[in-house]
Design goal:
Length: 298
């Protein structure tokens, strides 16, 4: 299958691309720079230069592909509405381009923010999450002959080299001199290893039915106190309870999210795709040094 991948050189995309290449797919990745082109060609993929603003470039690449995996997103939490608008413009264009072809369109989303300690499943809607509106508008393109599938990633897709939430929480802890968790730290944080996400995405591309909701979750919910303690131990600072206000003041949106209870399941996804997460746990990665200075900087 000829597959066009946006976000191909990002944290998730740079694992998905070689997974697809190794499985025999012909991959074309979007690259914003010469360095990105070199990184893609080194994996055996082809590259096309452009960004999410280049709709004509994206349209042409999608039209000549047998399927699209849309992983790119502008991660600017100070302008989330603008990022969502850009994402929707790209996805609506992909839907129009692929309409009537039954070709797959996989797109990145997020775990539903349900609250009330309920474990989020594939049957729950994502209306309360920042990207829930994207799912609501794009999944119905299945009725237009597009094999849509929402890839709901856990808030932490971890591994050595991760610059995401846990890396930022580690930096905050280093600067503050302590690793904080909100209240008792019993609230839960779902996670998944990057290698497991790559396998899951390939399987979803190959066999997920139209309109599918796929949840990339390896661990349903790790107590945030356990995460904070592991972070503190890894960088040599104590862990302690903080207020929700203090967490937000120190870490902004991430601190607020770290204080929420966000358990999530991937049981239906595992049954649907025949997928079993086998990568290291988040705590194993932290203890192995995945978030020390030398591991995640660069």
């Amino acid at each position: 299958m000829r597959v066009f991948v946006t976000g191909a050189t990002g944290w998730v995309g740079s694992a998905v691309v070689p997974e697809l290449v190794d499985a025999g797919h012909d991959v074309v990745g979007l690259a914003r720079s010469d360095a990105g082109v070199r990184a893609l060609t080194a994996t055996g993929a082809q590259a096309v230069r452009g960004s999410l603003a280049d709709l004509d470039v994206l349209r042409h690449a999608a039209a000549s592909a047998d399927g699209v995996v849309h992983l790119a997103f502008i991660h600017d939490f100070t302008r989330m509405a603008t990022s969502i608008e850009t994402d929707l413009a790209v996805l609506h264009m992909f839907c129009d381009t692929l309409a009537g072809s039954d070709r797959p369109l996989l797109f990145a989303s997020g775990i539903p923010l349900l609250g009330g300690s309920k474990i989020a499943t594939e049957l729950d809607t994502s209306a309360a999450s920042p990207r829930g509106s994207v799912e609501a508008q794009i999944l119905p393109a299945a009725e237009r002959g597009v094999r849509t599938a929402a890839l709901r990633f856990a808030p932490t897709v971890h591994g050595t080299g991760d610059h995401g939430f846990v890396a930022q929480l580690t930096d905050v802890a280093r600067q503050a001199g302590h690793s904080g968790y909100v209240g008792t730290g019993e609230n839960r944080w779902p996670a998944v290893h990057r290698s497991d996400v790559a396998t899951m995405t390939r399987l979803a591309l190959e066999k997920a039915p139209a309109g599918s909701v796929i949840q990339a979750v390896g661990e349903e919910g790790i107590p945030t106190r356990t995460i904070a303690e592991a972070i503190g131990h890894s960088i040599g600072v104590p862990s302690r309870s903080v207020t929700a206000e203090h967490a937000t003041e120190q870490a902004g949106f991430i601190g607020t999210l770290f204080g929420a209870d966000l358990p999530a399941s991937s049981a239906r996804t595992q049954d649907l795709l025949g997928w079993t997460p086998v990568g290291r746990t988040l705590i194993e990665d932290i203890e192995a040094g995945a978030y020390t200075d030398t591991a995640h900087v660069g």
